[in-house]
Design a protein that fits this description.
This protein is of the alpha/beta class. The chain is built from nine helices and 14 strands. An eight-stranded mixed sheet has the order 7-8-10-9-11-12-13-14, with helices on both faces. Strand 1 and strand 2 form a beta hairpin. Helix 1 crosses helix 6, helix 3 crosses helix 4 and helix 5 crosses helix 6. The longest helix has 30 residues. The radius of gyration is 22 Å and the shape is globular. 44% of the residues are buried.
Length: 367
């Protein structure tokens, strides 16, 4: 019996160590700032303004998309036909990929900078606490500036989709990078801090805009960009300059997002809180402060939330819950829900509807 008890104790210790090890690995993936470019789809044929792709859930998504491969980017249009093993779509612009090319359907159909959208811009640098970080400045003729904040693992080109619509309103726009982005300063430990320190770079951008003549600032964030903005609104004296916020697929509850991403990886439910605890100890973050429904920021400007029901990265339910709670939080909030498409792809599904919602919201609150 003693041997059985010893074996059982050893087995429990081994299982516990294994769980902690997996939690540590999951935490490391979460904090890893490296960008991995994957090409999970494949071109079967391309001709006469169409491209045929191996069928997958992502390939079948409606709307306007980028089709990216190692050395090319084209613009995909509507789905023309769906067969058992393939999908035929319109090829709207760009080079034609040869059959057999590994590709990815990309939410960013434009490269490399605002010139791809016909906009004049300047590459500038924002003085952040860690050093100068590159940004695109798209000038406008009004004294309201829009500061764009991309999500985790994203780049500045995330904003290229919405720049022309905001330019037509006359707003100057600042598309920023932040710590650990390419060409931006690295954090001291070389890890993401999931909004807990990145907000200082948004603060630097807002102060830059105000010093350059902005009387009001709009913050536009995608995914983790919302978590960064939320921390800024809670912690920065510069938040008083913010007149409105727009969030696309916002990360407004880290714990629930980690649970969904664990499910995506087929991990047991108990691993998510273990990974969260390990992450908290590694970078010092308090995830509870990033559940905005229960810990709203100190400054709560009028906010437009856009989220899609097909988002597998950040659960749409967290946006619904925040919007439902907003009246009790004294937080003016409007919500647009888009069906079916993936993370940060609401513009892709219906650019006209998306841009009308954004510009209408800003005209209502800014004049």
């Amino acid at each position: 019996m003693a041997r059985i008890g010893w074996f059982g104790s050893g087995l429990s210790v081994g299982i516990g160590a294994g769980v902690v090890g997996i939690g540590w690995y999951y935490s490391s993936v979460l904090l890893d700032v490296r960008q991995w470019r994957l090409f999970p789809d494949r071109v079967l044929d391309a001709r006469d303004g169409t491209v045929t792709l191996a069928r997958s859930r992502l390939v079948e998504q409606p709307g306007t998309w980028g089709l990216r491969w190692v050395d090319g980017l084209a613009v995909l249009g509507p789905v023309l036909a769906v067969h058992d093993d393939r999908v035929v779509r319109t090829l709207l612009a760009g080079p034609v990929p040869p059959p057999g090319t590994p590709v990815v359907v990309d939410a960013g159909p434009f490269d490399p900078d605002p010139s791809a959208r016909g906009l004049a811009f300047r590459e500038i640098h924002v003085a952040t606490p860690l050093g100068p970080a590159p940004a695109w400045w798209v000038p406008g003729d009004r004294d309201t500036w829009v500061v764009h904040v991309h999500g985790r693992g994203g780049t500045r080109r995330e904003a290229l989709r919405i720049l022309p619509a905001l330019h037509r309103l006359g707003h100057s726009q600042l598309v920023i990078s932040y710590r650990n982005d390419e060409s931006a300063p690295a954090s001291p430990d070389g890890r993401y801090h999931l909004g807990d320190t990145e907000w200082e770079d948004v603060e630097a951008a807002v102060r830059h805009a105000c010093a350059a003549g902005a009387r009001r600032v709009v913050l536009f964030g995608w995914s983790m960009g919302a978590a960064i903005i939320g921390a800024f609104l809670d912690r920065s004296a510069a938040a008083a300059a913010v007149a409105a916020v727009i969030w696309d697929a916002p990360l407004v509850d880290w714990r629930e997002t980690l649970r969904q991403q664990a499910r995506n990886r087929g991990l047991p439910g108990l691993l998510s809180p273990i990974a969260a605890t390990i992450t908290s100890r590694r970078i010092g973050i308090d995830f509870d402060h990033f559940t905005l429904r229960t810990h709203p920021p100190a400054v709560r400007p009028p906010t437009l939330v856009v989220h899609s029901t097909g988002d597998s990265a950040v659960p749409v339910g967290t946006s619904r819950e925040l919007v439902a709670a907003a009246p009790g939080l004294d937080w003016p909030m409007r919500y647009l829900e888009v069906p079916d498409v993936e993370h940060t792809a609401s513009w892709n599904a219906d650019p006209v509807r998306y841009e009308d919602a954004v510009t209408g919201f800003l005209c209502e609150h800014l004049g």
